[in-house]
Amino acid sequence: MKPLILLNFKTYKEVSGDKALVLAKKISQVSKPDYTVAIAPPLLLLKQIAQKVKIPVYSQHVDYKDYGANTGRILPAEVKALGCMGVIINHSEHRLPIAVIEKTVIACKKKKLKTVVCAQSLGVIKKVAQFKSDYIAYEPPALIGGAISITEAQPGIIVKAVDLVKKLSPRTKLLVGAGVKKAEDVGQALALGAKGVLIGSAAAKAKDPKKFLKELLI
Ligand code: G3P
Known about the structure:
This protein has helices spanning 19-28, 46-52, 76-81, 98-110, 122-129, 150-153, 155-168, 183-191, 201-204, 209-216, and strands at 4-8, 36-40, 58-59, 86-89, 114-119, 135-138, 173-177, 196-199.
């Protein structure tokens, strides 16, 4: 199984409107056969981008609701129909109660969407591991968007998180994210046992996204 490199565009100004499509196209043009490079574009551009690029597209959020009177909800069924491969659930910037995370994972599995459940601590990893998502992404909020990579700041906790997930949900793969921006960070994450990384600002704000990705994945 190749490491997953999930680039979360968030809602940065740098990817507003059509700029997200431009960035998605550039990323999709970089060939890195040893990795699965995926993107999570702004929600309103999901359809447009999923139709135009060949790399996996994830939704930055989803709700567990199905068709019906659910104003403003993002439905797993629709996300799937738009061409998404998976979803991010409970990102630090879009937290959900534990019971809602469970319902959301169940709803996404029914639609055969890959699930990436974010967790901000070992305690939360313990709670969400029981839902058997495809991935758990450990991201300490204080390091998100910062200069220091989680791999430098918390190598010991990453190892603990890897062990915890292996023990509680052997089929779930652990991703790590926060401050990841260099090849060394990715190499260190994989060396510590993570199966991939989540990257936000470094990808969304890259001056030259192709160069960024080529240098990130060696
Ligand atoms: O979803 C990825 C994320 O929260 C990490 O963001 O900017 O630290 O790479 P960043």
